[in-house]
Amino acid sequence: MRFSKLAPVSLVLAALSRVEAGPIAYGLCQTGCNTVTVACYAAAGFTFGTVIAAPATPAVLLACNAALGVCSATCATVALFAPTP
Predict the structure, then answer these.
(1) So where are the chain's domains?
(2) Among positive and negative, which fits the CA dihedral 53, 56, 58, 64?
(3) d(Cα 2, Cα 20) in Å, to the nearest integer?
């Protein structure tokens, strides 16, 4: 069969198909969350990823970590299900 006969069929199928999972949107969302967390740590005078969790962890870092958790959970519930063309 010639390509010219298949082209209209493939265009219709492509137009009807829809991807629901949004791995690109999820990755971008997570990158944004991590960027904000790095800035949060820097504002507190620390470097993200180098602080060992201990009972004496400053409250500001615990707040940064809690915000990262909320942001990541939001990404998982919103961005993963966003339509991606």
Answers:
(1) 18-81
(2) positive
(3) 32
Hey, what are 36's tokens? 């904000």
What one-character DSSP code corresponds to residue 80? G
pTM attached to this predicted model: 0.67
Q: What is the pLDDT of residues 4-18, one digit of tens each?
A: 554 555 555 555 555
User: Taking a C-beta distance cutoff of 8 angstroms, is the pair 78, 12 a contact?
Assistant: no
Helix, strand, or coil (residue 50): coil
Question: What is the pLDDT at residue 1?
Answer: 47
Residue range 22-39: mean pLDDT, rounded:
90
Cα 66 from Cα 68, distance rounded (Å): 5
The whole-angstrom separation of Cα 52 and Cα 23 is 30
